[in-house]
Give the backbone structure.
Amino acid sequence: MAVFLYDAHDLYNWLTAKENIVIVDVRNSKEFEKFRVEAPYPFRMFNIPYYDFMEFEEESIGKLPEGSRIRIVCAKEASANYVADIVHKNGFDDVGYLRGGINTWGNLLVPKLVASENYELYQFIRPGKASCSYGLLHDNEMMLFDPSRNIDFYLAFAEEKKCRIVKTFETHLQADYIAGSRIISEKTGAEFLANEADFLASKINYTKLENGGIYDFSSAGPSVKALFTPGHTPGSTTFVIDNRYMVTGDTVFIRSIGRPDLGGKAVEWAEMLFATMNEIKKIDRSNIVLPGHYINWDEADRNLIFACTLGEAIEGNQAIYDLDTPEEFVKFIQTHMRPQPEEYAKIRLINANLEQVDEEEQNTLDIGKNECAASAYAKTQAA
């Protein structure tokens, strides 16, 4: 068998099908530690920089399990191709390298059907970012929630479903990834809806959300209600779909809550988040939480969907939700926060359309897992 190219979606399918493959990441150790392929089930992976294959070929080959199916990953593709040829030359028959490099894994989106009634609700998992966006379809229309910059995916999905994108919502001004709503709105004419508390200073043509406002499709279908839930940011908003599903952005997570320090006002925003937490506890706990991020794959259900009831989210984070005073909550936040990544400030400017960068810099800024959670568990996972 000749050396072959494979796509990020192929890699996801192999890993979730528990196929017996070995991933060889040939980037340097610093880049590997910053961001790597992760999956819901155990798999074998080696970090052997490509220059080791250049200088110490025999030793590097000796680290690979004999007869294994090798899948090579690098930064941009060329180094993986180079190493694939070396590995194949040394007797490994089943050798592939990732098309486009690690960025294609970082931008991969995987659709999961959450609900199918007189409408369809999809969760779009981004494994490389540990984040989720959402699509709500009714008749020939689709609404999006927190789309990523991989706009070609959403456009192709809408075409496949024979619908047009009519609205795109942002739960808040994102700091950890470059958002896609503005570009999707410009390309399709879809209405961009966002909270003025986050987007007032932006250079974006958007519709201001109203607290408690109802947003509908052209024909009868599920309603979308905007609930202002400030704290992660002043404009954080939860969208309640059909009075059953809560797209919570970075406010309610399955295994944490959103950190309130990303704007440099940890105390002020933590006090807002504490008040929001107490309001959230009044909501029907049978509602289904659809979070903007996850920490680990073990939060997913057996269908690899990230969702839980609001009651489960509260009970699973009882140590946070049981805090009695704003002062206790602020102390918790100050104890459990890591410094935010340096690139987050620039990403906020890009998402407000206050700064523009080229595609290469977007890839650099956008790669890597999010660090938006506030919990002792999240701190240990991000360390």
About this structure: The chain has two domains: 4-104, 109-378. The CA atoms of residues 267 and 330 lie 6 Å apart.
